[in-house]
Amino acid sequence: MRIDIISVLPELMESAFAHSIIKRAIDNNLVEIKLHNLRDYSEDKHRRVDDYAFSGEAGMVIRIEPVYKIIRILQSERTYDEIIYTSPDGTLLNQQEANKLSTLNNIIILCGHYKGIDHRIREHLITKEISIGNYVLSGGEIPAAVITDALVRLIPGALGDESSALSDSFQDDLLSPPVYTRPAEFNGWKVPEILLSGNPAAIDQWKFEQSVERTRRLRPDLLE
Ligand code: SAH
Questions:
Q1: Statement to judge: residues 131 and 177 lie in one domain
Q2: Which of 20, 35, 193, 215 has its Cα between 20 and 30 A from that of 7?
Q3: Global pTM?
Q4: Residues 144 and 171 in one domain
Q5: Ligand 1: which atom is nearest the Cα of residue 85?
Q6: Tens-place pLDDT, residues 22-67
Q7: Which of residues 125, 152, 179 is at a domain's end?
Q8: Which of 63, 87, 52, 59 lies closest to 8 in space, CA to CA?
Q9: CA separation for the pair 175, 139 (Å, rounded)
């Protein structure tokens, strides 16, 4: 899988992709993540990529020309399955969507900034708009890092133990059961007895019951 991320502040995402599971996936050639600075595609000598809003609102708007230019260059090199724009009014990201995106070959993620991007980019170039929550952030860089993290960990081989992505919360519309590690007792606080029983079938049953109980209590909407 290849992910091209276009942004006015690519540095903001560098660390997010330089550690842990994502770094390992890159090192193992499971994913290629390319950060592009939109300013490199500006025709302005000061490398500006924004301009005032015609509607007179405060806040600058990312211009169409540099975005058009980089998207067309990337598309001349390969075909893209989706060109995603991160936007608070996009479809809310969830695990099902992450699962779907993780099966694609090439995607572009365009990060907005300032007041947003010229709406013609959204009308003519973008194929999917994703929000990471009902709140407004300063830029699309953190959302792009969130989207990338959520889907890279689902690429087969990205996690050390492949089955562990499947047992995460939301995968069967159930929250994950609680997890414990050693010591079995700390300060008099004990790990549930069953986990020390050495009986895998009983432990699986307990985990399922815990998942259902926690989902019913914390996220009843998932069971509907
Ligand atoms: N004026 C816009 C918000 C601009 S915020 C509006 O009211 O909808 C600047 C940029 O940050 C956006 O262009 C978008 O790319 C990104 N962004 C902000 N909040 C986001 C969210 N919840 N999910 C995804 N992207 C977001």
A1: no
A2: 20
A3: 0.96
A4: no
A5: 15
A6: 999 999 999 999 999 999 999 999 999 999 999 999 999 999 999 9
A7: 152
A8: 63
A9: 30
